[in-house]
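Risk register update: the risk of archive-format incompatibility is retired. Evidence:
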Amino acid sequence: GIGNIHGIYPANWAGLNFDRLDEINKAVNGKPLVLHGGSGIPYEQVHKAVTLGVSKVNINTELQLVFAAATRKYIEEGKDHEGKGYDPRKLLKPGCEAVVAKAEELIKAYGSDGKAE
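Archived output:
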């Protein structure tokens, strides 16, 4: 491990251990690495991890949080009571849109925009 965890990071989190990541990258001879528990890690740290061999970043918690917030807002605004706002396609749409927007933001922040093959 290099200091990353699953879920929400505590306030006293010390950050990623880049020396350890560099050691691991050298030990696996440049094979792609995955950063599990990437949600909430400052963008500059994720970007640095990518430069040290990380090719995949898992950000599930961060996406779940924006999905829940957007869905909660839809319900709290009473939109589920307007017309057929209770339809799951309408009820879940704000959450899905929030996930897409957050994913686009993270792709750009991590320096991966336009790199899909």
